[in-house]
Queue: 3 jobs
Job 1
Amino acid sequence: MRDGPDGPDEQHRVLAELLAIVRRSKQGDRLPAERRLAEQLGVGRSAVRSALRELSHHELIATRRQAGSFVTSPGPPGRPLSGRPPAGRATAGSRG
């Protein structure tokens, strides 16, 4: 694993910064475009996309193709994301 651009440390930083943006937002607010977020954070779009996928997985945002990403639930302030999916969400390793 790398710790440079788009490595684990960088991805955690991007996720933390996007999570802070979401938590300052209201439900229904649109997030800036991926390109703009990447420029603001000084990272590649792949790092932004990865963080947006994680936020979507935790149901904090909804991303619609050609429309953007929107805050669905700002979540409690200061609470970190867990490594577990939200209740009721199946994962590749879960059994049903």
Note: The chain has three helices and two strands.
Job 2
Amino acid sequence: MDSQEIIALSKIATLISEEKIISTDNNSIWDKILSNAGQSELFDRFDDYLKPHSYNYSGGRTYENPNPQFGGFFSAIKSILKKVYHEGYDNGEFNKLMASIAENINPNLIFDGDFDEFNKGSIWNNYYTFESFLNKEDEETINKVLRENTTEGYKEFLLSLQVLNFELTFKNKKFVLAPYTESLSDGQGRDVSSIVRWLTTNHPDIASLYNEAVRNYIDGSAVSCITSCRSLITGLFSKFQNDGQDKWLRGLQNFSKDINVDKVTPKEITGGVVNTKYVFPNGGQFNYPRFMFVYGAYKYTCDLGAHALEAPMIDGNLQTETTTVNDAFLALRTVEDIIVWVKSDLST
């Protein structure tokens, strides 16, 4: 049986072929989508099936006709998605393709209902199409309407994206692909926009790092994404240092609520010698779980990010790790959970 990911790709191909998210109404649309994702070779390979029109030239005139091979459009799109997914998931090529597809969603295909009635009976008026509404309204209003007034096809597209670890938002007047990470903030589903708003209001420099990490992830730049996550961790906890302190680990120590953490130094914790100060009859020890969780995330982002090319040399060969987009996804998910933890702790 096909995996859930392959089924999701097939569903996306179905929605595309049925023109429920993208209008394939000219011969250049898939040339643009694939070329913008660095997959022009695939357009050349499948172009006979990706063009809805054929042209005949007679008597000095050009005649447009339906392309008989366009009947294979669904199979061509599915083959393209599967090929890039299998060959380009780890190196970010699949991310680029899905981002290019997202940017070409036709807004007028995804609105559910009579837009004239919606326009007339709401505070949003004077818009001739749903596309013009998206181009002029604020992002918070737009994303609310996209959750409540869109077609089943669009919602199925969103669910298929989630299976593939993506979600879709509307930002800067276009649809933007983002990594899907489900948080536990306020007991609700993931709401990255609230996290970004909190960071932007309280720590705009950290918000910039978070947005940079997301952009790098979508671009398929795994090492750059993880490096941004590392800077985010150190930058965020640097803000919790006391006057005179100059190490982010001091800020983490101050923020952590671990038992006994205020009686030792960060170096003693990270060096693994902290429990030599105490001898328990039953062999117990202080583990500093909160401190070590964040420090472990930092080490992860060092080893697969900024220091990814530092490794032991064995028989003349450098034994480096290969950083993948899935590794970057884990880093993003972890730092988002850390941000939620900090945000929630400060609010209580």
Note: Strands lie at 53-58, 61-66, 166-171, 174-179, 313-314, 317-318.
Job 3
Amino acid sequence: MMAAQHPDVRAWLAVAVGGIAGSELRYSALVAWPEGHGFPWTTLGINLIGSFVLAFLTTWWLRRPHIPFWVRAGLGPGVLGSFTTFSSVAIAAVTLGKDQLAVAVVYLAVSLVLGLGTAAAGWFLGARVGRRPSASRRGAPTPLDAARGNGAER
């Protein structure tokens, strides 16, 4: 049985620095567009953007395994993990629910449905952008095609 590999110090530092950056992005958005006591549009927007970007990057990275782990960790759990937080959704819903229960329920439903929708859109776009047309479709085999034995015999 192989021992589990642990991330190196670069990944830990990337998550820490990314966490600072994501937190500052969130704070800057909330300063620029304060929510007050109404519908939490800024929190919703932050979480929808984050859902889209994380899904896009995750799909894109699946097609590019050469992207270093520390970069993926810094952007995923680091920047986007601190930029988007479920705790903000929960606090906004509880705050709304004190005086406007129906609005709180709508907010939770909208957050869930649009969050899943933007994540699906990000996943779809990441897969499309991540797809590289192989040179073999253009007539010449790529090094990967040759290594696989596809098109190298031409």
Note: Residues 142-146 have pLDDT under 50 and may be disordered.
